[in-house]
Amino acid sequence: MEESEVTNDHQKGPIFLLTAMDGQIHVFTQENSDKDQFIESNNLATVFPIINRINDRRIRILYMHIYDQPNGEKVICAGGQDGDIILAFYDKELAIVYKCIKKNGLEKSRVLPQSGNYDSVLCSHVMDVDWDGENEILIGTYGRQVLIYKQVAGTQDYNILWRRQFSYPIYRISHLDLNRDGLDELIVTTMYGVHILQPNMRKARERLLEVLQHVDARKRHMFDLMLEYKHQKELEKAIIFES
C-alpha cells in the first residue's frame, strides 16, 4: 500500500493506492463529509494514467513507491510478480493561450483554468460551439477529458463551458458537417476509437429562431428607413427655394 496527495475538485487530500493479487491497483480517497472514512474511487486514475495500463494488463504489483519532487513532479516506480519494472514520470503543465504573438511575442498570456488537472494536454481545437459568432477553445487530455473554454465577455479570461470524460486518452479533436444538415458535429479521436457528438437540436432550433427574428427585425427597420427616406424626398419637392 502506498500513500500520496492529489488535488481533486480544487481540494488537496490524501489517497491510498492498494495493490492486490487480482492485478488491479485500487485507489481510495477521503470522503468530503467524513474525514475519517475512505472510499474506493475510479476517477483518480486520471491523475496516474499508468494505473489504467497496469490494470488492463493485470500486472500483479508487489512493490510500489511514489516520490514527490520539490518541483511538483511525481515519480512512480513499481515492481511486478512476473519481473516487470515500471517507472513513470508525471510533470503536468497548464494550457496557456498567447495573445497577438506577432506583436507581443510570448509576453501576454492567459492560463486555461483546470487544464492541468487531467494529466498532459494532447490536442486542442477551435470552433464556435454555441453559435454566438465567437470561437471557443477545446482541449483533449491524456486523462481522458475534453474541456471547452469560453472567453469571458470584455476580458481576456476563460471559463469552462463544458466538460466530458471518455474511456481513453484524447488524441485529436475536429469538427465537420457529416450529415450535411448545416450543423457541424464534434469528432473526438481517442486511443481506441472515434466518437461523433451531435449538436443539441433543441438549442440549435432556439438559436436559429433568435437569428431569424433578428434578421426579420433588421429587415423591418431597413424598410421603415426606406419609407422615411421616400417621404422626405416627397417633402423636398414641395420646397420653393433653390440656390
UniProtKB/TrEMBL annotation:
One GO cellular component, as annotated: actin cytoskeleton
Molecular function GO labels: actin filament binding
Name of the featured protein: Uncharacterized protein
InterPro entries in UniProt: Integrin_alpha_N (IPR028994), Kptn (IPR029982)
Biological processes, Gene Ontology terms: actin filament organization; cellular response to amino acid starvation; negative regulation of TORC1 signaling
